[in-house]
């Protein structure tokens, strides 16, 4: 046995990365009811997670040789990992009227103008879908046991999707072992999508931009730009007071805060200075104009995807009744697989109404 | 496994499984916090990823399809040539604002720009050149409209690059902003290629009309092959105040003496910020790293060369057909 092989074994013996090393069932969302903390949003208990960050990583001052060696071992571990996809694939469900599919995690890249075939300008937001994998599927019966579950979710199972594979040394062992079932490196970002059982996806399946089609409508959820603590003018758009004409010390202040008599006092919900931004917001019914399959980039309509550049964005089929897919015309179920496209997948896909830059100039008759 | 087979050194060791690795000792402070932990807590909270972290992820070997570097570095081009190209096509440069910069976004944008340049010829032009632009227009009688004027402004990166043409029609100043990559542009011509003393000629709005009047039947002035772009040293005599902007504060070169009272120049001097020339951080933030610019311009050089040869082939084919 070579030294390398010995080290390799030693590294993997206790790492919790491989499936057969796991002693007990792992948890992704803990099945234990915790007491509500007064918030109405989490009436049924708050879901919690295993601890993610390994605090001691930066304290190891490794020599460069050792550092390189460890990186090599980590890379080999995951390339030689027995993928769950080698087993028989799950049966693919059929798209029904109330089917809800899984979504993806994207990263917002910025804004770019595009033009339609009639010569109108549209602003598009580019979102890259980087290294997404399905981490686990939980059927509805199991999902009902999780903390934070709501009775309205009775019909839905959950699919956990992860994005951005990263170095397992960053994380705790318990966090790393969450990914053993999917056979992928630990992910930087995890989210959960509620899906109907016919849209279940096998763990370890990669998700790409081809999960959607050109012309589909999606909902987009992200955290808005964090402005920090802001005054009333920026936060609520109040007018403030004049710059001169005897005004002192109240140019950017809120005016009156309430009435008198029975209306006296400051009412709940009064608009005041405070923390602005960094809140989860959803924009619904955004059209996909164009897809780049090489870099996995979606061109979404308009500048209204929340958040600053390089934020995580959750993208899923829209729930708007007139825009969501129907059984006659629906995106790939449960997701796009390589066998779906005949031959090689084209690198660029334009919407029919969108001007492709290879075409001749727009002319009117 | 016995430890003597695997240990690298006899120094204090840290274990990952049974693997022994050489480390330096960790010294916690009075409160039991290590240096790394304190640094982590002091770091600002962000709800977005840093550009360099995203770049790392794109090339990380742990990814399913890690990105492979394209072989742009093979292109042979002198640095003078690249600098020249940078001045000619400033819209190909990355965005100067660091926070809105993304490599993939810019790459995809540039791909579209090359595609568009294959369809129509976008000639070289500068602020001060006289240009003619033909646009498809629904409401024009022949469904086309041609505008001739002097280029007074040019800005924008990527597909949103644009320029402003100015002319005087029936005694009325007219300015039109054209987007360089708008598909409704049918033809772009530079009738007279030249530079002026300033980067932008917005002050022509406050100058007599003869400075910005160009006849619509202006005949193109050809430039001998290989000649440098001529600089027009014309100095403009502005009208009397009031103006659109306070031109005395702009440090303009292409303007004759403004003839203002002393107090205007005094105030301009008060508000001037001559020290900004030496603010290295400000320059770093607002400009682009030379190495980064060169890699981009090399790609542009290779692509535009292909486009030129393609156009030459098309021209010879057409002549043969005739």
Automatic annotation (TrEMBL), chain A:
The keyword Transmembrane does not apply. Residues 243-274 are annotated as: Disordered. Keywords: Ribonucleoprotein, Ribosomal protein. Pfam families: Ribosomal_L3 (PF00297). GO terms for cellular component: mitochondrial large ribosomal subunit. The keyword Glycoprotein does not apply. GO terms for molecular function: structural constituent of ribosome. GO terms for biological process: translation. InterPro entries: Ribosomal_uL3 (IPR000597), Ribosomal_uL3_bac/org-type (IPR019927), Transl_B-barrel_sf (IPR009000). Belongs to the universal ribosomal protein uL3 family. PANTHER family: 50S RIBOSOMAL PROTEIN L3, LARGE RIBOSOMAL SUBUNIT PROTEIN UL3M. This is Large ribosomal subunit protein uL3m. It comes from Pomacea canaliculata (Golden apple snail). The lineage of its organism: Eukaryota, Metazoa, Spiralia, Lophotrochozoa, Mollusca.
TrEMBL record, chain B:
It is found in: Mitochondrion. One of its GO terms (molecular function) is structural constituent of ribosome. GO terms for biological process: translation. The keyword Ribonucleoprotein applies. Gene3D superfamilies: 2.30.30.790. Keywords: Mitochondrion, Ribonucleoprotein, Ribosomal protein, Transit peptide. The keyword NAD does not apply. InterPro entries: Ribosomal_bL19 (IPR001857), Ribosomal_bL19_sf (IPR038657), Translation_prot_SH3-like_sf (IPR008991). One of its GO terms (cellular component) is mitochondrial large ribosomal subunit. It holds the Pfam family Ribosomal_L19. Belongs to the bacterial ribosomal protein bL19 family. This is Large ribosomal subunit protein bL19m. The lineage of its organism: Eukaryota, Metazoa, Spiralia, Lophotrochozoa, Mollusca.
